[in-house]
Amino acid sequence: MKSRLEEIRKAKKLSQDDLAEALQVSRQTISSLENGRYNPSILLAFKISHFFKVRIEDIFIYEEEEDGEQA
């Protein structure tokens, strides 16, 4: 799954720490989401979506792998 979280966060001039505090998660969680090392829970995805007032699909982009398996 691709993430536009870093792009959206930076456009709002927020640090990872600021966003983490607002969402009540660790800065490491934000970093991992931005670097694709972690996919958010549905609850966290909704919290992020609500915080930025955009659709989940505008932040997290699902992509299938070329062999048809899920990413």
Protein model, in words:
With 71 residues, the chain is mainly alpha-helical. It has a single domain, classed as Orthogonal Bundle (434 Repressor (Amino-terminal Domain)). It is 54% helix and 6% strand. The protein contains 5 helices and 2 strands; from the N terminus they run E-H-H-H-H-H-E. The chain has a two-stranded antiparallel ribbon with strand order 1-2. The longest helix has 11 residues. It is globular. The termini are close together.
Q: What can be said about this structure in brief?
A:
The chain has 71 residues and is mostly helical. It is 54% helix and 6% strand. The chain has five helices and two strands, in the order βαααααβ.
Topology, please?
Blueprint: E1 2-3, H1 5-11, H2 16-23, H3 27-34, H4 42-52, H5 56-59, E2 60-61
Antiparallel strand pairs: 1-2
What is the CATH homologous superfamily assignment?
lambda repressor-like DNA-binding domains
User: How many extended strands?
Assistant: 2
Please report which band the strand proportion falls in: under 5%, 5-15%, 15-25%, 25-35%, 35-45% or over 45%. 5-15%
Cα gyration radius (Å): 12 Å
**Uncertain stretches:** none
The CATH class: Mainly Alpha
N-to-C series of helices and strands: EHHHHHE
Judging by the overall fold, what is the CATH architecture? Orthogonal Bundle
State the distance separating the first and last CA atoms.
6 Å
Residue share in helices? 40-55%
CATH topology descriptor: 434 Repressor (Amino-terminal Domain)
Largest sheet: 2 strands, antiparallel
Q: Which descriptor suits the 3D outline?
A: globular
Count of DSSP-assigned helices: 5
Question: What is the overall pLDDT average?
Answer: 92
Organism: Alkalicella caledoniensis
Protein name: Helix-turn-helix transcriptional regulator
Domain HTH cro/C1-type: 5-59
Keywords: DNA-binding
